[in-house]
Amino acid sequence: GDGWSGIHRQHGLQLHKSGHKYGTYTLILSNPPFAGFETDHDILSDFQISRNKSGNIRGVNRALPFIEQIIKLLCEGGRAGIVLPRSVLYNESYSFRKIREIILRNCEILAIIGLPKTAFWHTDCGILGDLLFIKKCSTPREDYRVFVGFLAYCG
């Protein structure tokens, strides 16, 4: 960053290793990388999401440790807006179910907004996306309202 704006340009999964403390951010807006897998064991060892059912570290979809990192960085009551691949909310494989458990155990979901197919057409990646808005809570409520919407057009 420029030293005064609070905007940082660093490897997002290593912020906590360069002076950024967990539990101190009040607002995070993020568009984590969608493509590929994170396979660096030094990075993955810091994240629950990288552990399989036996507790062994294994590579995961690159977006997943970013979601966990965002939750760790938020202070109590801190909020985040995250652009996600739709698979984070709907895929039934172990790591995707696990990240949803991490979200629900540590946060309240404020809103989920589905993005249209054309949102990422310029990237030619063919991925559908969603916006997820969360608030970090040490004890999330069991029953609360969540705004759910779908954008018909981006422009």
The number of distinct β-strands equals 7
Relative helix content? 10-25%
Count the helices. How many? 4
Order of helices and strands: EEHEHEHHEEE
Any idea what the radius of gyration is?
Answer: 16 Å
Q: Can you tell me the overall shape?
A: globular
Tell me about this structure:
The chain has a five-stranded mixed beta sheet. A two-stranded antiparallel sheet has the order 2-3. The two termini are 29 Å apart. The protein has 155 residues and is an alpha/beta fold. α2 runs parallel beside α4. It has helices at 41-44, 63-73, 87-90, 94-106, and strands at 25-30, 37-38, 60-61, 74-85, 107-114, 129-136, 147-150. It is globular and about 40 Å long.
How do the strands and helices of this protein lay out in sequence?
Blueprint: E1 25-30, E2 37-38, H1 41-44, E3 60-61, H2 63-73, E4 74-85, H3 87-90, H4 94-106, E5 107-114, E6 129-136, E7 147-150
Parallel strand pairs: 1-4, 5-7
Antiparallel strand pairs: 2-3, 4-6, 5-6
Helix pairs in contact: 2-4
Features:
155 residues; alpha/beta; 4 helices; two-stranded antiparallel sheet; 7 strands
Summed up:
The chain is α/β, with parallel strands linked by helices.
